[in-house]
């Protein structure tokens, strides 16, 4: 699915979706996470990865 299509389905701007995709977001609304998961048919944890500080 393209970012444009995902943006349309989730209801967020393409610019904001690009910020999320490129790991530049400082915060995200829970409603946006929920919408992303509904469209992508995933769980919230599937959207995140964690690397310990300093690595």
From TrEMBL:
Segments forming domain HTH cro/C1-type: 1-47
SUPFAM superfamilies linked to this entry: lambda repressor-like DNA-binding domains
An MF annotation (GO) of this entry: DNA binding
Protein's name according to its UniProt entry: Transcriptional regulator
Pfam families xref list: HTH_26
InterPro entries, per the entry: Cro/C1-type_HTH, Lambda_DNA-bd_dom_sf
